[in-house]
Amino acid sequence: MDREELRIAPPPEKIGKTNFLSYLIDTIYKSYHNCDITHHLKKYKIGFTLAEVLITLGIIGVVAAMTMPSLIHKFQNKVLETQYKKAVSIVSQAILKAKADYGLDNFAQYCTYYPYASDSGKPYDNAAECYENLYKSLLNYEGITSIYNNTPTRVIRLNDDIKTYNNKAKLTISSLAGLGTPLYYTNRMPDGSYIGFSIVEGNFLITIDTNGAKKPNKLGHDIFFFKLDKQKDMITYLSEPKNYTDEEIANGNYDSEWTANRAGNPCNITSSQGGNGIGCSYYASMNKCPSDSSKTYFECLP
Question: What gap in Å lies between CA 289 and CA 292, rounded to an integer?
Fold first, then answer.
């Protein structure tokens, strides 16, 4: 374009703010419809096909099926651990209260006092009194003080389905002899747990079922055996377990079924003993796994 054309060319049309905005929108709109992108967007719709959605849901289902049982098992074990700690704490505090109410230096020795020959068949002189006051202390610790609620809620569990630690055998009261008394003749607490106590074989025995009638009802899972230490006057495990193989038990010289079932106070993932699990309070108190030192007690429940 030469100078003359530039000189005589009409000036450009002035575009106001409103007209400019309309012009800009119109330009963009025309450009969009004329470009290849529009053609491809119309040809290929954005989204997932039904097959793709079903495949994705199938993968999610497989992953969930693989991980959920493990997550549920860990959650259940964590619940059992929390219930165990709560129950042991309640019993420990109740013993201290009963001891203070009595004004005794040693509650365990007072309750197990027995001035007779071991084969006399006579009851322990102070047993009934100790049971009553310990039960009242347990209820008072739970915040229950009325006379009506201070009456023991007895529970007899002779027909309950109670299993050993590794679920290999079903317990009976005869399979444990006297040790089974506080387990099968127990007391229901306000929170639903069962706590039983009995003086047997010179020991003040205590059993705790941390969730009462609810499952799993297995030794070492929600059911634990304790005794009162006569020297320290506090709740403790029966003894450190000594785990025997099934062959050692079969070849052992035991004079009764219950002595074989209770031999070593077992807590063993492989044992078939009828009392397997009575010694698990030792490991639970130490918070260590009987079969794997790298895990805590409740992490490795079978």
Answer: 5
Phi/psi of residue 155, nearest 5 degrees = -130, 125
CA distances (Å), 54 to each of 45, 60, 73, in order? 19, 10, 29
The dihedrals phi and psi of 234, each to the nearest 5 degrees, come to: -150, 160
Beta bridge pairs of residue 287: none
Residue 138 neighbours by CB under 8 Å, 6+ apart: 90, 91, 94, 187, 189, 195
Question: What's at 243, amino acid-wise?
Answer: N
Residues 85-143: pLDDT tens digits?
999 999 999 999 999 988 999 999 999 999 887 778 888 999 999 998 898 888 876 55
Q: Are 219 and 165 in contact (CB under 8 A)?
A: yes
Residues in the chain: 302
DSSP the chain: --HHHHHHSPPPPP--HHHHHHHHHHHHHHHHHHSHHHHHHHHS--S--HHHHHHHHHHHHHHHHHHHHHHHHHHHHHHHHHHHHHHHHHHHHHHHHHHHHHT-S-HHHHHT---S-TTS-PPPTTHHHHHHHHHHHHHHHTT---TGGGS--EEE-TTS--B-TTSSSB--HHHHGGGGHHHHEEEE-TTS-EEEEEEETTEEEEEEETTTTSS--BBTTTEEEEEEETTTTEEE-S----PPPHHHHHTS--SSHHHHHHTT----SS---TTTTTTHHHHHHHT--SS-TTS-TGGG--
Quote the pTM value: 0.77
